[in-house]
Amino acid sequence: MIKKASHYDNVLRLAAAQALSMTTMNVNIINTALVGVLLSPVAWLATLPLSLQFLTSMMTTLPASLMMARFGRRSVFISGVLISSLGSCGQGVAIMIASYSLFCFSAMLLGIAIGCAGFYRYAAADSVDDGQKPQAISYVLIGGLVAALLGPEIARNTVDILPNAVYAGCFFTVSIVQLISLFFLAGLKIPKPTVKLGTSRPIGVFLRMPVFVVGMLSSAIGYGLMSYMMTATPLQVVNVVALGTSANATIIQWHVVAMFAPSFFTGSLIVRFGASRIMWAGLLAYIATIFTALNATGFWPYWWALTFVGLGWNFLYIGGSSLIARVALPEERGRVQGFADLVLTSIVAGCSLTAGVLHSQMGWQAMILAATVPTLIIAIGLVWLSVHLRRTAIAS
If you count Cβ atoms within 10 Å of the first and of the last residue's Cβ in the chain, which end, N or C, has fewer? Predict the structure, then answer.
């Protein structure tokens, strides 16, 4: 449990902001590829807006982290919320005027906001003692469970509210919803770190730490694979097997539930069993995803595949983030966390674009088989981490 009242208040506020940020992202994931099909000049560019979103998020992470180290987290978080609202509104306008270029630009604005919001988990971890960091990260991600319920309902019930502009109402709605975050973020009390000259280690030192490298790659590749599946599934479910937009919203909804519901206990499991074992469990869930998705023919196989990938993401993302959060000194966190999220968002951007290209050009099964390669990379990393931890235990 998080013991101090001030720590609890920060975590609660960040969890609420996470819920609203993920609500916007869920509506975006459910609808953006489908809007891309309607607006893009060629079919394989349907997922380009999502890829540009993740690319912009990638470009934002390191500058945002450095700005947080200089000016504090609260001001950057509030700026991100305002940009998110503007971007979502721009997406709605783009649909109304049938402008693919404006839709892509607005998706990039949303990417900036996502790059800022990605640090909510680290802000919570920085607020507590070392032994409580996994639980703080886990508690913030519980906010995503609210998004799992709210996001798909917004997508389902606002898709047709504007005549002759299908999907536009979804984006206008989350543009307003996102502004509620300002109320929670305004009360954050996280002091800026005190910089001690001469004590900050170069990033190369961390790249020689198995704990940091495996934590970074596992969370990054795990997130990338989740994005890979989440990007392509609406195209497969709605446009290929024709299960309908309601079925798609339900599948994504339960996928997001699987992403965030385990957060009630993931942090405690990491404290009890160690991050490595929890990340192995996440890898097994990804293997189950591949086997299930390969032979998917109806609603339930797609539902199970997205549920497995959501569960695997939770274990890999929280486990990897907890490893990253514990290796850096306060004055090093801006660079180290920013670098780790730069790698994460780079991989996510590549995966989202790759998913659209492979799905449109080679089909669903080829796309799923390609996911075995990054899954194997995670497995190799976890073996390396296990060997390192065993050697460290013997040496001590």
Answer: C
